[in-house]
Write a structure and sequence with these properties.
about 130 residues; alpha+beta; four-stranded mixed beta sheet
């Protein structure tokens, strides 16, 4: 009997969104593997970092005028950016990642030109989390 994965997570990078089928027992490296496969094998999972967004502040209102939100929205969005990547061996259920949750992915800045054996050095080697809203 085969096990089907009915849940999924949305993994966002810039203007891209990857829909990855998951199970609660999946590791974060398995999500990286799926992203790599979707992109034709490059970048390799070692050239990716996954992040879990932090919760939105409770004092946000949904029907405010865009101009009024300006700086407040920018500050709120910055507060939601995670600081540390999730370890590859971590399990989705251990981090309360469930169906339809959003994760962020960043790549090594030079992933297109670097070899898979090269280890990224320092935080400056990685892209910033940047999600482009349509």
């Amino acid at each position: 009997m085969s096990t089907t994965k009915e849940d999924y997570v949305r993994v966002k990078r810039r203007s891209q969104t990857f829909f990855i089928h998951t199970s609660p027992s999946d590791t974060f490296v398995s999500i990286k593997d799926e992203i790599s496969l979707a992109m034709g094998g490059r970048p390799s999972p070692s050239k990716m970092r996954l992040y879990i967004p932090t919760s939105a502040p409770n004092n946000q209102t949904s029907n405010s005028d865009d101009k009024e939100m300006g700086e407040a929205a920018a500050a709120s969005a910055a507060a939601m950016l995670p600081k540390d990547p999730i370890p590859d061996t971590a399990i989705l259920s251990d981090h309360n990642v469930t169906n339809d949750d959003v994760l962020y992915v960043t790549f090594v800045k030079s992933w297109e030109s670097s070899g898979d054996d090269e280890e990224p050095e320092g935080e400056d080697a990685w892209e910033e989390i940047e999600i482009v809203k349509p």
